[in-house]
Amino acid sequence: MVNGKIALVTGATSGIGLAIAQRLAAEGADIVMHGRSADPLAMRDLCRGLSAREGITCAYIAADLSIPEEADRLAREAATALGPIDILVNNAGMQHVAPLEAFPPEKWDQIISLNLSAAFHLTRVVFAGMKARQWGRIINIASAHSLVASPYKSAYVASKHGLLGLTKVAALEGAEAGVTVNAICPGYVLTPLVQKQIPDTAKARGITEAQVVRDVLLAAQPTKKFATVEEVAALTAFLCTPGAQSITGAALPVDGGWTAH
Ligand code: NAD
Q1: How high is the pLDDT of residue 19?
Q2: Which domains does the chain have, with CATH numbers?
Q3: What is the pLDDT of residue 257?
Q4: Catalytically active residues, by annotation
Q5: Pocket test for ligand 1, best of 94, 200, 218 (most atoms within 8 A of CB)
Q6: How far apart are CA 226 and CA 147, in angstroms?
């Protein structure tokens, strides 16, 4: 379905981003894998594996997307490496869990920069080309926390609500030019990002890690199951098909019913 298209996936070295890169490659897209990785050898191996398995071209670029200039550089180097970007998946993100009064201001700045501003910087660079070519797909990996809040996640919830706002504006601006922009809003998916917050949440709430999983993370998820990276990747791939061309500006939950509450 996406044969010959070029996709840039941020945060593609683990979790949801890796599953999306793998799925788009399996559908025939050439992939620019982005990672923060200080380990270029690991990224090279991931890329080689993907190329060999799917017969596509893969490039990898490291960048710290909490720095605006790095986001600009990534977008430009990606286009130089493989060609104009047709599909942009803004996936890289981070979390920090702490009560508001103890929330470190530098963490706030870092989370807003990575989870929200990086998507703006990357979109800004690729948008004109997508519009000129009359085809583009921008998929922002937002969160159920774009729609509802949880305590102790001030920066994350603010950044993800902001990302949904950016999604809607970009959707309106790209609509007549064949560029769709959507936000996928996963509930809890068991990836390193979630695994890392379990001990912090346990500390913030004074409960055990098992209680965090049962009573906090999955408490609001009616299926009582984590969503999977493959499910998020499948929706991303669908949004790139002709059947999805009228879906734009949408917030699409993959949350086991969480936001139906
Ligand atoms: P993950 O920790 O496995 O992946 C995060 C990715 O972001 C990694 O590739 C990491 O290298 C990259 N990254 C982190 N800091 C970076 C920086 N400064 N510069 C560049 N890249 C950086 O986590 P994940 O769960 O796969 O998260 C992917 C996205 O999905 C995030 O935006 C997250 O907010 C969102 N999300 C996750 C869940 C979940 O339950 N896991 C739920 C909703 C939304």
Answers
A1: 98
A2: 6-187+228-260 (3.40.50.720)
A3: 97
A4: 156
A5: 94
A6: 18
pLDDT tens-place string over residues 144-199: 999 999 999 999 999 999 999 999 999 999 999 999 999 999 999 999 888 988 99
Residue holding tokens 């913030």? 204
Q: Classify the C-alpha dihedral 186-191-194-198 as positive or negative.
A: positive
Tell me, what's the pLDDT at 31? 98
Count how many residues are written for the chain.
Answer: 261
Ligand 1 centroid to Cα of residue 176, in Å, is 31
Cα–Cα distance between 142 and 165 in angstroms, integer? 11
Q: How far apart are CA 259 and CA 247, in angstroms?
A: 20
Which pLDDT score, from 0 to 100, does residue 39 have?
Answer: 78
Q: Are 76 and 121 in contact (CB under 8 A)?
A: no
Whether 201 contacts 181, CB under 8 Å: no
Mutate to test the pocket of ligand 1, among 191, 232, 255, 259 (most ligand atoms within 8 A of CB): 191
pTM over 0.85: yes
Q: Long-range contacts of range 56-59, CB-CB < 8 Å, 24 or more positions apart?
A: 56/25, 56/28, 56/29, 56/30, 56/31, 57/30, 57/31, 57/82, 58/25, 58/30, 58/31, 58/32, 58/33, 59/31, 59/32, 59/33
Ligand 1 centroid, distance to 208 Cα (angstroms): 24
| 253: amino acid identity, one letter | P
As to burial, measured by CB atoms within 10 angstroms (0-12 exposed, 13-18 middle, 19+ buried), residue 229 is buried
